[in-house]
Amino acid sequence: MTEKYRKVAYYPGCALEGTGHAYNRSTKEVGKALGLDLVELKNWNCCGAMEVKNIDPKLQTYLSARNLSIAEEMGFDVVMAPCNGCYHNLKKAEYDLAHDGESREVVGRLSQKAGHETYEAGKVETIHALDWIKEAIGEEGLKARVKNSLQGLKIANYYGCMYTRPRHIFPEKDKGPGSESTSKPHFMDDLLAAAGAECVEYPLKTACCGGAHTLSDSDTSTKLVLNLLTTAEACGADVIATECPTCHTGLEMHQVRAEKVFGRKTKVKILYFTQLLGMALGLSARRVGVAENLSDSSDLLRARGLG
Amino acid sequence: MTPLTPSTERGRILARLGQLIEMPADDLAAGAPLLAEELLALGEAILEDWLHAHGATPTDGGVEGFRLLALHRQGARGEPSFNACRETCRELVYYRNLIRLEPTHEDLARRVRLAAMVAHHLALFVGGKLEVAGLGTFCCSSRALRQQDTAATDMNA
């Protein structure tokens, strides 16, 4: 267990205030139930997401660095970002500042102009919600706190593409036993298995969800998502667990669209891993925001005695 | 062999993958070793399609003993977003190995079907990237892909 992860700075990012609200709610509730503290960054800004990064990558580095600077100013050396996009961008900024002089120059100049301290690489560690629970509580700690086992629930864990890519910005991964793998990530599998679930082998756990195509070519996105859904069902899954608001929303929306446009109905339910953990810890479905999901899992959850 | 035009080739591959995904379990199990090799070849054809579309000559080399992985590495040169299908390629190799190494496994038919679904994902991903001109760098982006710096020479390097 890592004591320093028990109280961390929290960077929800824009998606968790919008379509990913259920992820925000369930992450906070799980933290409370586990006795972990999250302190939201004051006056945080967009991480630079994809829009800024594509136009001006150095500006994206600055935007993410500003959030890290706020965490440092608040006295934290760890910031937790549950959104894969935010997590990726903060890690990327950390990497760029450590390895690229031009990035340091731009961040220094913009920080001075904005009137705050310039963030320097190595001061704040960025972690994902999966790291947070895995390192602060661990599987054994989680098992001891489970009140409502997920036993009998078959879950395909879907990590999406940004949690592990590109590998060089995640130097802590691929360090052997106990560390996360970039080719076959398993932290979500470990946690949900500790909560009693049966995690099925799912060969598309890091495959593209079509997020890039959502607006420009919805049919391609729908086909990619449909393949993720049907593959999960072929693996025997009742539920796909997610840990990224973009993937989650994409899976939900395109599940509906696949039926509407292609006449292909799939039954697999889509839930954030924090919602599943929350219910295993005895929280109600309402408390972890299940009603906010587009994917209606109420029948399944009732049948399993969850929520 | 002269490559088929990308759209024709993609259509053929998608149709065949669709057949395999829907094939009865007994047929999948009966033909498993050959189907595993066919799926690997279809994966290679998908990546060849990507390379041809960029004016590159697909490599005949191998990475870790597999041409599929070498083609992926070639296809990702100068195009980091293409790494979003790296693990999909590796999963296809993994399932091919599982099928070949355990030809009497009780789960054989399901393994072949899953391999076909993995290959299907690869075909959809690469097809999507090819069809939507202007999809850009790492994942969800809108920057033009075909900027001058993603010239075919990068992939032939």
Can you put this structure into words, describing what you see?
- The complex is a heterodimer of chains A (307) and B (157).
- Chain A contains twelve helices and eight strands.
- The longest helix of chain A is centred in the C-terminal third of the chain and has 18 residues, at 245-262.
- The radius of gyration of chain A is 19 Å and the shape is globular.
- Chain A has helices at residues 21-33, 51-55, 57-73, 84-99, 101-114, 129-136, 138-145, 187-194, 218-234, 245-262, 273-280, 298-303, and strands at residues 7-10, 37-40, 78-80, 125-127, 154-158, 198-199, 239-242, 269-272.
- Chain A has two domains: 3-127, Glutathione S-transferase Yfyf (Class Pi), Chain A, domain 2 (Up-down Bundle); 148-303, Rossmann fold (3-Layer(aba) Sandwich).
- Chain A has a four-stranded parallel β-sheet, with helices on both faces.
- In chain A, helix 3 packs across helix 5 and helix 4 packs across helix 5.
- Chain A is an alpha/beta fold.
- Chain B has helices at residues 6-22, 25-30, 32-53, 67-76, 86-101, 108-131, 152-156.
- Chain B has one domain (6-156).
- Chain B has 157 residues and is mainly alpha-helical.
- In chain B, helix 3 (32-53) runs parallel beside helix 4 (67-76).
- Residues 1-6 and 133-153 of chain B have low confidence and may be disordered.
- The chains are: A alpha/beta (307), B mainly alpha (157).
- The A-B interface holds A 50-51, 53-55, 85, 161-162, 165-166, 183-184, 203-204, 206-208, 210-214, 216-217, 220-221, 223-224, 227-228, 230-231, 234-235, 246 and B 21, 80-81, 83-85, 87-88, 90-91, 94-95, 110, 113-114, 117-118, 120-121, 124-125, 127-128, 131-132, 134-143.
Keywords for this entry:
heterodimer, A: alpha/beta, Glutathione S-transferase Yfyf (Class Pi), Chain A, domain 2, Rossmann fold, 4-stranded parallel sheet, B: 157 residues, mainly alpha, 7 helices
